Structures are given as structure tokens and as C-alpha cells.
Amino acid sequence: MEIFNHSLWLLISYQSLGFSFFAIYLFIKDRQIPRLYFGLYMVSFGINIFLLHLHLFEHDRSLTSLFPFVLATGFTLMPLFYLLLKSQLNDNYRFEANEIMHFVPFIISTVTIAPFWILITSNRPEYLDLIYGIFLLKKWPGHQSFLIETSMVSFISLQMVFYMYKTNLLFVKVNRRLENTNCKNARVFISGCKTFAWSFFMLIVLLILRNYLHIGEHTISNTVYILALITLNIGHAYFGMQFSDKEFSSCLIGNDITDFKPNLAPIENKIKESKYENSCLCEELKDDLLKRLIVLMEEQEPYLKSNLKIEDLAAMLNTNSKYLSQIINEHYNKNFANYLNGYRCSKVIKLFDDPAYDDYSLDGIAETCGFHSRSSFVAAFKKTTGQLPSVYRNSSQNAEKSD
Q: Which residue, 97, 191, 222, 254, is the most exposed by fewest CB within 10 angstroms?
């Protein structure tokens, strides 16, 4: 039973690393930031489980001495999980410098633990009191190892409560944006994200409570416990990688307090215009060009340049303007100008909701989003949303105040 349980602990560690490699492969393939976060999260979880199993089973001393770093790696799990959800639920996500603050506990614990590990591995325990005197809790009654471990678990538990609160705020914000949409993909995506979040929290709770469940290392109860961890790990790996955030973004673009649903996703029924019957573009090349166009528009936002021409966009995609015009006409039923204005209007609506732009005039926001004149902005916005930008902005602000 001991060998079997030991193998299961290793299995969940290798399983996590396998998921991480696959997620990073997907990131390289489609450049979706959530894939990268999930890959990093799975690397952290796999290392954490591996270090934990070193503590539970007899191993070479050089390996077991690595166990103190389980605390440091544990501090990365919840920040990576939160940033993963944030990148999935925010259709305009960009990593900001202030998000480094999420990893301050990891940095502090690593810097703190490194000298401890060096002293232990170099057989110089006499210096422990000099450096870690207060942290060893020798003046406290009871077993120091138990007190230290309890302190660690308590801190991680507080961290988990904090990120549960922030995760709930994320879902509340997204649900408000989805109130006026019937996009099925978005609803399925949100359900998947919630399932992923709950499986993650259940996994962390099981790891935190392990010492309090009185699980023996060589018993059936331990086998059941590890199997539960493996099942949860597979489940939240599935929901962590299954849904494309690009599909979700297409439902969120411009979706706010009105029924405005800009058509920035390809139309289902392609227009078969006679002028493209002799085109050299096969379906495979069309699909590839369309995918690259969507990624370029959503990630690099070239439409923010007011003087952007179709030739410029074609050059970014390593194609020609004729093929790009065909793709836009067939898949969006729009000309190039209207196609750009759809994205620009969606960007305008996002800035209307951004507190950083509350002091911006309509002209200032229009210029920021790529419109070269007020008249073109007003005409495009009304054509896209059915409202004047001033009316839309006022109704949006009033709705936020009422909330």
C-alpha cells in the first residue's frame, strides 16, 4: 500500500507537469494569455505536490531538504489562479506592473527560506538561532515544528479567503456585463470558469486540511484522499483549458447596459459574391487568414491608428489587400472602414466604463480610439449602437451610479 500511495503522489505531480506542457504548447499556438497562466499554475502545483511527497515518504536527505520550499511555491498557486481567471474574464486583459504585488509573499518567503535551506544542507545548524531565532518559536510552548506548520497553513488559508473574495468580485463584474446578452458561448464559458474555480478551492482545502484529517500514510484512507486530488486536478485542468477566451471576448465586445451587440464575430452564413468566385484563396487559407486577423485586431489593436489603411493591415498579416478585403467582405459582410469602426466603437464603450477616462471629453476618447474627426465618430457610433455617444455615455454613467 505504501508503494502504491507513493506512486499516486508522484502521478499527480507528473500529471500536473504534463498539463503545464500542453497548456504552454497551446499558448505558443494561439497566443492566448490564459493558456500561459494555466501552464505556470500547473508547474507550480506539480512542484508543490512533489515537494510535499518528499516530506511524506523517506527519501535521500538531499531531496527532503528541499521541503521548506513547499511554502514558497504554495504562495504562487492562488495568485496564478486569480490572474488566470482575470485574463479569461477580461476581454482586454493586459499584465500590469502592479500585479507583481500578488507575488510579494512568494518573493519574501523564498528570500527568507533560502538561507535556512543553505544552513541545513551545509550542516551549520548552529547559525539557525542567530538568523531565525524569533521565527523558530522556541519561547512558545509545544512542538515548534507543529507551531511553524500551523502558522504556515494559517497564512495560506488567509490568502485563500482573500482570493476567493477577489474571484467573487470578478464574477459579479462579468455577470453585470452579460445581463443583456443571450450569447450561449459566454454562459457556457462562465459556467466552466466557475467549475474550475470551485475545483481549485476544493483542492486547496483538501491540501490544507490533510494533517487534520488523521490520514495514515499506508492506509486506504490515504489512497482515497490522493485519488480525490487526482480527480479534482483532472477536472479543473479540463475546465482550465477547454474554453477559448476569444469566443468569450466576442460576446463581451461592446456588451454593456444596452442591447448593443456589435457584429465583430464572423457571420455564420458566408456571402457568396460573384466577384470572389475566381479567387485563389482556398477555404484552408481563408480560415488561417481569418484567425490571424482576429488575433491581430484583439491583441495589437491596430485600429487605434486613425490613418490605418487596408494595405497596412495586410502587411501586418503578410498578405495582400485584395485577399484581406475578400475575408472582411465574406466573413463580416462589411467594408474595411465599417469593420474598423466596429472595433473603434467597442473600444469607445470600454473607455466610457473606465474610471481613468472619466475626465476625457468625447472628442478625446474618439481620438484615442482611432477616429480622425468628431463627425465620423458620431456617425459611426450611431450606426453601430443606434445612439449618440453623448446619450450612451450618460446612460452608462447613470446605470453605474444606480448600482
A: 97
Q: What is the pLDDT of residues 21-67, one digit of tens each?
A: 888 888 887 777 888 888 888 888 888 888 777 767 666 555 556 66
Cβ–Cβ < 8 Å for 91, 244? no
Q: Measured between alpha carbons, how far is residue 182 from residues 178, 259, 260, 354 in Å?
A: 8, 10, 12, 24
Helix, strand, coil percentages (3-state) for the chain, rounded to 5, are: 75, 0, 25
Distance CA 87, CA 32 (A): 9
Alpha helices in 317-385 (DSSP H): 321-332, 336-352, 362-368, 374-385
User: Over the stretch 162-184, which tens digit does the pLDDT of each residue have?
Assistant: 988 888 888 887 777 666 555 56
Q: What domains are there in the chain, each with its CATH number? A: 2-241 (1.20.1070), 253-402 (1.10.10.60)
Buried/exposed code over 23-48 (b: 16+ C-beta within 10 A; e: otherwise): bbebbeeeebbbbbbbbbbbbbbbbb
Contacts of 110 (CB under 8 A, 6+ apart): 69, 72
Q: Report the 10 Å Cβ neighbour count for 332.
A: 21
Q: Which three cell numbers stand for residue 305?
A: 491608428
Q: What is the enclosing helix (H) or strand (E) of 111?
A: helix 104-121
Q: For residues 268 and 274, is the Cβ–Cβ distance under 8 A? A: no
Assess contact for 33 and 87: CB atoms under 8 A. yes
CB atoms < 10 A from the CB of 81, how many? 26
